[in-house]
Structure formats: C-alpha cells, structure tokens
TrEMBL record:
This is Prepilin type IV endopeptidase peptidase domain-containing protein. GO terms for cellular component: plasma membrane. GO terms for molecular function: aspartic-type endopeptidase activity. It comes from Bradyrhizobium lablabi. Keywords: Membrane, Transmembrane, Transmembrane helix.
Length: 149
C-alpha cells in the first residue's frame, strides 16, 4: 500500500515539476505525511529521530542552496527540491540520502546528455527540473531498502 501511495505521489511530482518547474507544497506535505506514517506503522525507526534527520537534511540542503547562490550569483537548486529531499528523508532515513542524490545527479546528467545529443543548446544558467530526478532516486532507494528488510 505504501509503495502505491509513493509511486502515485512521485509520478505527480514528476508531471508537475516537469511541466511547470515547481514542486507544490501540498505534494511535499503529502510526501512528508506518508513517510512519517510509514515510519510509525512499520516501526522501522523512531518517528521523532526520523523527523530530526529530516530537519538536519533540510538545513544542510538549504545551506548548500544559499552557498551556491552566493558563489555563482544564481540559483542552482529550487527551494521545492530542498523541501522534497527533507520530506524524502522521512521515507528512507538520512542513510539513504547519499544514494538518492547520486541516482538523481546521474539521472539529470543522462537527461542533459540526451538533450545535447538531440541538438538542444544548453548553457550554465539554463534551469532544468530536478524534481523528477529526485523522485527517481527516492523511489529506487526506497525499493532497495524494502528488498533489504
């Protein structure tokens, strides 16, 4: 049941972020609520400690976003992406975040290579929707975690 909830939610995030370039707060809230409920029902971790992990991930991602903007003069990561990663922490825990980010970055690079091979001109300030790539990473890490359990 949790897998169905998660895949429908992630597909919605992909569709909306891919088309409009935003991840709505309502979807981030639904992601966080589902992750907290899954943690509580499955007893895989203490909900409070998972919440603390999500808070720390949010702070680290927000700091990364701010530093990037300060250094480069433009945003490199949307605030919806920051909130998405924090909410995803409730599903996979802080130990799953490196894998999620690795999969998301590789997916985004593959996407850029495909766009480039099709003749699209890409520059350093061109925005791409990162939400779909984060969704792929979250899904794979959650599934792999379920296989190990």
């Amino acid at each position: 049941m949790a897998g169905c909830y998660l895949v429908v939610l992630l597909a919605s995030v992909c569709a909306i972020d891919g088309r409009y370039g935003i991840i709505p707060d309502s979807m981030v809230l639904a992601l966080a609520a589902g992750g907290a409920l899954q943690t509580y029902l499955w007893g895989s971790a203490d909900v409070w400690s998972r919440g603390l992990e999500a808070t720390l991930v949010f702070a680290a991602a927000a700091l990364f976003r701010a530093c990037y903007r300060w250094l480069r003069g433009h945003d490199g990561l949307g605030f919806g992406d920051v909130k998405f990663v924090a909410a995803g922490t409730l599903w996979i825990g802080v130990e799953g975040i490196p894998g999620l980010l690795l999969i998301a970055v590789v997916s985004a690079l593959a996407s850029l290579l495909i766009l480039r091979s099709e003749g699209h001109e890409l520059d350093r300030k061109q925005a791409i929707s990162f939400g779909p790539h984060l969704a792929i990473g979250l899904w794979w890490i959650w599934v792999l975690g379920q296989q190990a359990a």
